[in-house]
Amino acid sequence: MNEGTDGDLVWHKVPGEIDESRNYVKALHVAGKKLCIVREAQTLSVTSSRCPHAGADLTHAWCEEGKLVCPFHRHKFNIKTGKGDPGQHNAIRIYPLKKINGTYHVGIKKSLWNKLFG
């Protein structure tokens, strides 16, 4: 089973293997969404893939001290909370990630359509 529900979340299996041995930032395609998977200093996070400042693709970003750094204008976002640095007045979405029977799953909120008719 690739999907499961949990309240307002639908849990989608992360395709492929997740490398837990090194740090990286890369694209993750789940449930028709392009997300960003980040691993730094034992922290594994799934974030939105677009910078809220200018729309840059955060899959080309890098991490510094627990913050995802946008490749366009160097806006920084905490990889645990999504909050931008002071003065930025913006944030990125953090998606919940959990391991189920040895495989990772990312939680994505149900759409309004699915809540009403799904």
Question: What would you note in describing this structure?
Answer:
It is built from 1 helix and 11 strands, in the order E-E-E-E-E-E-E-E-E-E-E-H. It is mainly beta. The longest helix has 6 residues, at 112-117. 25% of the residues are buried. It starts with a strand and ends with a helix. The protein is globular and about 40 Å long. It has a single domain, classed as Rieske Iron-sulfur Protein. A hairpin with a 2-residue loop joins strand 4 (33-40) and strand 5. Strands 1-2-11-10 form a 4-stranded antiparallel β-sheet, with no helix packed on it.
Question: Which descriptors would you attach to this protein?
Answer:
118 residues, 4-stranded antiparallel β-sheet, mainly beta, Rieske Iron-sulfur Protein, 1 helix, globular
Sheet/helix structural class: mainly beta
Quaternary form: single chain
Specify the CATH homologous superfamily: Rieske [2Fe-2S] iron-sulphur domain
Mean pLDDT: 91
Termini separation (Å)?
A: 18 Å
What is the CATH third-level topology name? Rieske Iron-sulfur Protein
Coarse shape: globular
Question: Given the structure, what is the number of helices?
Answer: 1
- Total number of β-strand segments? 11
Helix content range: under 10%
Question: What top-tier CATH class fits best?
Answer: Mainly Beta
Q: Order of strands in the sheet with the most strands? A: 1-2-11-10
